[in-house]
Amino acid sequence: MAEKIRVATASLCGCFGCHMSLLDIDERILELVELVEFDRTPITDIKTLGDCDLGLIEGGVANAENVEVLRDFRRHCKLLVAFGACAVNGGIPAMRNQFSLKQCLEESYVGGVGVHNPGIPNDPEIPLLLNQVHPIHEVVKVDYFLPGCPPSADAIWTFLTELLAGKPIAFPYTQIHYD
Amino acid sequence: MTSSLETARHPETLRRVCIEPLTRVEGHGKVTLLLDEANHIQQARLHIVEFRGFEKFIQGRPYWELPVLVQRLCGICPVSHHLAAAKACDQLIGVDRLTPTAEKVRRLMHLGQTFQSHALHFFHLSSPDLLFGFDDAVAHRNIVGVIQDYPEIAKRGVLMRKYGQEVIRVTSGKRVHGTGALPGGVNKALSPEERDYLASDVDQMVDWAEQSVQLIKRIFLTNKEYHYRFGAVDANTLGLIGTDGAFELYHGGLRAKDARGNTLLDHQDYRDYEQVIREEIKPWSYMKFPFLTQLGPEQGWYRVGPLARVNNCDRFDTPLAEQERQDFAAAGEGRPLQAALATHWARLIELLYCAEAIRELLPDPDLLGTELRLRGEMRAKGIGVVEAPRGTLFHHYEIDGDGLVTRANLIVSTTNNNQAMNTAIRQVASHYLDGRELTEPLLNQIEVAIRAYDPCLSCATHALGRMPLELDLRDASGALVDRICRHPDGTLEGLSEGTEGVAG
Questions:
Q1: Nearest CB to A124: which of B51, B175, B467?
Q2: Which superfamily is assigned to B54-419 in CATH?
Q3: Strands A5-11 and A36-38
Q4: Is any Cβ of chain A less than 8 angstroms from the Cβ of B445?
């Protein structure tokens, strides 16, 4: 048997919906684990990324840690995929780009409804936010873009199986239309 | 007293141990521990680093976008956000009571959501700790390990989640981020074919859910003493309750009890939540710390979610879940169970309830009805609350005369559990880790306590090490894309303070 393909996944500034859509392959996950093994992903306890064949990135880049995780994935993954709308173009969280970061933070932590002890959190343990939310290709080179909010489970399955089979990846229209 | 571990007196003299990213939780978070030379833990904090600014950036958007826009907060319980926003929008357009078809389609959608989320949490995320032990090998302690060692349990978990997702797809068009609810109603009812499709597997789901409850009960009661103590913290509880005191997920008044089970609030109209709850800000977390106003920030924090709900209700309206609730209540020996791992037991009782409630609802002819939407006089303020899988979820919106959002406040379930989770990790840290050399299995115990709350910390991940105070973001060619700097006093300074977009 051929060696298994090693796969890592991460969610940056996203909602985990793309990861949920990956799990929506349902019982096909039993087939998938015969073909791949997982490195760092939210469903394993591996905390440090190792060398991988494939990395899937959900979410855009909104803070300093997103940048570090994304660059770490680029260094360790032969192929890197922008997985879903937020990784591809920033998505809904990028709607904050029309406001300044200060305006967004003050809305929540200073002038918000029912706030007790107002003040913007600033402990060194919480990561520095970027002024704007960025798609991942503005920070690293990206090999594939898989659009959708989220990409459907069938689109993810087509992508993974054709990639693993070494075929050029082609989707029927029904798998890539948006809502 | 575990609360003393919130802030160490002299952090600069202590060694820092960080667990990050937290894994097998939905979303991201990290725990920091500060230890002295003898490995005594002086500080333990769960930090939530999520900040996306929804409350600001939805300002100026038309209210009718909210149910589909704000559900993008979370891909795991999008239906809960979808419905909380829709309920708030019902208020905005002056609809206090939906048509029977609209209300029942929404309830079905919500039951499907809770069923899939609970199955996901137990089987995909938490069962490895419970089936293999907290100290199982890292490479094996995950759903793939469960597939290999307990293929039947894993397959049932996968298929139960699938069923819940199919209920969502049928009622909202898509499994994740669908479009079923509209202000004042829903956009479609069920067809007879769709109803029959869901009905064909529902007996199997009830049966499997019942067996899942027996599995967790067996695990919990084998080594009972340990499971009673692990991560147990006395907490107030909060949740929605039916008008007759029955368990309720979609609509009801607020009920709060203290740790002994005495009632603090009952059948409180949730549209008055601003009087009932306030939120404290702490500088080390983006997640706020809500508390019951009547008790204040020190004493007023509370727990939401399955453990709170099953402790809070007088009964379930479905027979199998009610029988299991009685067993659960008896295990508390006269007071509410406060053990972290009892949350898994409560969660699976709810899983069973959802399966039974879906089975009871499916034959209802209203699901096939044609009266989908109502409209009334516009109002300036709308508040919608549901019990999401992880607990009480508040959406509050205000609009102007053109229907554009002027103000919003969202209190998500996991935020409601913020202090309870922090107190639980301090309990575990002081009882099981204090004075010991910290190994991976010991650190996993911290995560086991957090996992019990099934937190949905969606957004922002972490890398090891302290964060830089000044950051440049450059593209692949080295050109500066963004820069931000945090001064020692906490003020922020950036390259692009204004509203210009980023090139590319």
A1: B467
A2: Cytochrome-c3 Hydrogenase, chain B (1.10.645.10)
A3: parallel
A4: no
